[in-house]
Amino acid sequence: MRRLLVSTVIVLCTAANGALAYQQDPNTLDIYFLDMVGGGSTLIVTPLGESVLIDTGSLEPKHRDADRMYQACRHAGLEHIDYLITTHFHSDHFGGILELTKRIPVRCFMDKGALPPRHEQENKQFKQLYALYQQATGGNVERIRAGDDIPLRNDPSAEIPQIKLHCVVSEKQVEGFSGDIDVPIEGFTTKKPDTSDNGRSIALVLTYGKFKFFAGGDITWNVEHHLAHPVNRIGKVDLYQVTHHGLDQSNNPLLLKALNPTICVAMNGPRKGIQPNTFAALKALPDVKAIYQIHYNTQYGDEGNTSGDLIANAKGQEGGFIKVSVGPEKKIFAVSIGMKRRRKWFQIQ
Ligand SMILES: [Zn+2]
Question: Looking at the 3D structure of the chain, how many domains does it have?
Fold first, then answer.
């Protein structure tokens, strides 16, 4: 589905919070990191106007996250969402799905094809939220396995770069690795097997021409190890969605070094991530030019906060998104915060 208006340079969209004006290039890839206050939701709008929403934030407070996702869709000029991918079944990643589908239709639902471990299935909150998930999807969900591509459309004339969204991890299966990810490896720090659904999360790589983006959901340390070693399976990325909100049980430095990102965006909350070890590891990466955060981190002061101009929601604020735009055949991409459009440009590596 194409965007509502693709040929004009200045497009006026009326969002739920009023009229907005923004610049739109029909061949641009846009990625929106939405403020779910410590939850996850990332909206991708492809150069041909298809849309992918990765995760749907939380149910409570009711309507907050669904309204924010819907507003971002309106801002992007979307009439529907083509693919809605749920990375895993934790309340901060799939709680808002039913309320969202009441606001905007979804063409195709996708998930990892398995429920959380038994001890999480017995959780009262999971039972409540999974009933809402089933209501939203009608049970019609496609399974994504490591190695699968999400079938995005490409320009048949190939005048603009090809876009590809590829799954590298699902249900603790790492593409290209057939062993048990939790077996200790001599010479490396491995952690106890993650028995939560975080470790079973879907991880995705999006490429558009030379631009590369890694979104790992909430995968944890041992899974990350096998993405980086002995083979660097993803390679260098331009954009890194800081895994698991920036928590230290994820963000294995081995993978951070392998990804060697230019820009990092953390989907943290005021009291959830970025934790000091992860923040220090990100800052130490050789090519990192900026670390963006969705929220000011009230827990760790300078050990968990980037500079103020890179934080979408400073103290007391809420709801601002971070937007990354990648044009065709350009060697640069733009990052801006919320509606204020404080845009910075970075080199594609
Ligand atoms: Zn999470």
Answer: 1
